[in-house]
Amino acid sequence: MTVEEARAEPSAALDFTPAPGAVPLPRMILAQTAYELRAMLRNGEQLLLTMIIPVVLLVLFSATSLLDLGPGSRVDFLAPGVLALAVMSTAFTGQAIGTGFERRYGVLKRLGATPLPRAGLIAAKTLSVLAVEVIQAALICAVALALGWEPHGDPFSVLALLLLGTAAFSGFGLLMAGTLRAEATLAAANLVYVLLLAVGGVVFPLGEFPDAVRSALELLPISALAEGLRDVLRDGAALPGGPLLVLAVWAVAGLALAARFFKWE
Predict the structure, then answer these.
(1) pLDDT averages per 10-residue partition of the chain, 265 residues
(2) Longest CA span, the chain
């Protein structure tokens, strides 16, 4: 097109008018999810907590008789409990510590000033947690199968338990990160992790505790998740009502409290 033609037809000339506009929300969430996931996988402490410790516990207690795990295959008892531990380590412990220090250093405040809304940031963190849990589950299941694990039950029941467990642990992880100082969150999250590992039916059978204590321990989210997964994957149960109800109550309570009391600064 010649200059004369362009002048004669202005609409045909190049249009350099700015066209401002935000990136679509799903694209922003996916970009933030990718960042969150890379940050988690590059953190050596996070990898130790989420990947190495669960696998070490699974191999150690499956291959030795250090603990009396009752009748049946040792790995059939341990694999569901270690899966529950992996969910807790990522959704609760790792998320609480990571978010707590992001809050302390002003990362959350700065992210809150970007075009990504706070609901989008929470969605990105949730997606990154789920992505890590998929990796954890694949690794733990592969190791367990190599050790002779023979899982039963339907995948839908397992998925329902894992999602409710993730929601429950995420709610209380965010509540802790959004209300306590970062150092207090670090100490408290690790303490809770160790305590629930010891008394939550992960590697120690709840049947070894006195009846009154066992009844109380069964109401913990880690116990409900571990026992529910055990009911499905070892015993072939479908949608275990008790564990699902316990996890649903913890999930609603944790997410409601986190939404009410979380402080971004």
Answers:
(1) 54 59 80 86 79 91 78 88 95 91 85 78 87 93 94 91 95 92 93 93 86 92 95 89 95 91 82
(2) 95
